[in-house]
Amino acid sequence: MDTSAVPAHRPTAPSRAQRRTARTHRWRRDTTELAAVFTACAVADLVANVVVHGHDGPVLLLGSAAALLVTTACHAWWAHRHPHAPTAPDPGAPPGEAEVTGPLKDFEQTALWRVRTTVPDSPGSLARVSTALAGLGVNIVSMQAHPLPDATVDEFLVRAPRTLARTELAAALAAAGGRDIWTDPADAHDLVDVPAHVLALATRTALDAAELPVALRQLFGRCTIRQYPGGGRQAAAGVDGHVMRLPAPSGDLTELTRPQLPFTPTEFARAQALVELDSLLGPRIPKVEARLSLPAGTDLTVRRADADDKAAALAMHHRCSKEALRRRYHGPVNDADRYLDHLLDPRHGQTLAVEATDRRIVALAHLMWDDDSAEVALLVEDDWQRRGLGVDLLRRMAALALEGRVRTVYAVTHASNTGLISTMRRLGAPLDYQVEEGTLVITAHLTETAERLPTPWPTGPGR
Question: Looking at the predicted structure, is the pLDDT value of residue 321 above 50?
């Protein structure tokens, strides 16, 4: 496959009539320039004779200088008030020197698209695709090649006229020899160099084990991520079409499913590198915290929690009423304790703990990644309820979700849990409600409330 750079707009050879017109245009221009030179020499000789031999030579010279200054000032003012309109390109100008015109000059009239297509691994295949895109007025912003045994998957980030339909874009790629064509709208987050993007995701994963699912989702787009403890001992690593399996040295298995787009070996290599980095570094969370001052004057600390906090979390469970535990875990109260191992594992999400001055945990909040969304859950000890802890924790979890480019969060509870319903409403985001057999699912859309959410850790590392 030819991987050399291909211009988005391929110039065409000028016709015989265009070449003849260009030669005539250059001849007239050269004649005019010569006449201007001779005229300037004659005027200069006349002015010199007047200045040297005339009685008013110095006065004439000063007057000429003043006139030139006034003319220059007037020209600058006029040019500022009336900018020149773009001129038509010179037919005889070399290719590439003509001014860029057309719909792509105004970025407000364009849209970003991610495009992927499979092409034959042969010379000229990339050139044909690029020419097809140029014919639609589409500009290639970035491009990646994913080699396969008998073909190549080309992935583009393109800027296209907003009026261009998805079907037209796909049809042009198919006519250029592309197959298995996939298109998806993109946004400004995709305008980033791919190696730099992967390094940034690796850095976030190195700082926080909870970032691995977020990093994989940002790397591959919409996909389902499931983790199976101990499942990696039986599964083989690799890609099977729309499924990617990533066994970890610890024996766990991470499985990614992307129905709309098959994975490539290049993507598998990137994902495997992130999983190996996560396994090498082991369990870790950033040392971040924030102070809370309640209206009653009590100072509390909000921080990230992990497996080391299990004993304190169990003690809080035993201080909570059965009703509080039932509203939180939606099942038998006696089973509440066994959920903590999963909830305090940073690879499944992020857990926030509110700690009193005597080191007791009085509230727990969980943010658990779930495809393109995230589930939020709250448990506040009975003696600390109705003090604003739930609202503060929910806002922090929403901000953490937005940091991971998750735009919706949802909570699952009983339809009679008016406390959680009120807390979700105070988030200030549009809410969707769905009730099935007494179970209520409240979904908050965070895009409209992003600017009002606090920074979770104002002074924490890596944030």
Answer: yes
